[in-house]
Amino acid sequence: MKKSILLMKSLMVFSLLFVSCNDDDSDGVTCTDSLTGELTDVEMSFSGTWVLTAVVAEDEIDLTDDGEDNASTDLFVQYDDCEKDIVYGFEDDRAYSFVAGGTSDCDNEQTTIGTWKLNETYGLTVVSSCFSQTSQLEVNDDFTEFTSEGNINYIDVNGETITSKTTFTYTKTAM
What we know:
Helix content is 11%, strand content 43%. By secondary structure, it is mostly beta strands.
C-alpha cells in the first residue's frame, strides 16, 4: 500500500491534477480550451508512445519492506510491475493519453486523455479535464528519450518522509 501511495506522489511531477468542470461557466469556472493546430517539426519528432524506464532520486531511499537496509537512488528497481507501467501517448492529431497500469493487468489502472503541445525549448503543455499544465522536459538529440524532474516527498520503509530531487526518464517505443 505504501508503494502505491509513493508512486502516485512521484507521478505528480509529470502527471496532471484533474479538475471537474463544465463549459457553461455557471459556477464561475472557465475550462482551458483544447490545444489545436498543425504540429511543428519538433512536435512531429516528439510524437509517439513513451514508457517510464527510470526513476532516480538524488538521495538514497529504501521503499521496499524486504527486511534489508538497501536504500538506493534507483527507485525504479524498487517498484513492482504495476508501478513501472506508465505510458504516455502524444499523437499526430494533438491527442494525448496517460495510462498507468494498463499493460500489466493491474488493479488500479488509470487512463487520462487530452491534448498536447511542445514548444521549441521543450516546454510540454497538456490540457486535460479542463486543466492545463506545462512541464519542462529535457529531450535527447534523436528524440528517443526525455526526462523531467522535481522535488518529491517519499515515505521510506521506516515511515520517515524524505524530500528528494527526482528524475523521471521516459523512452520512446514502437508500440
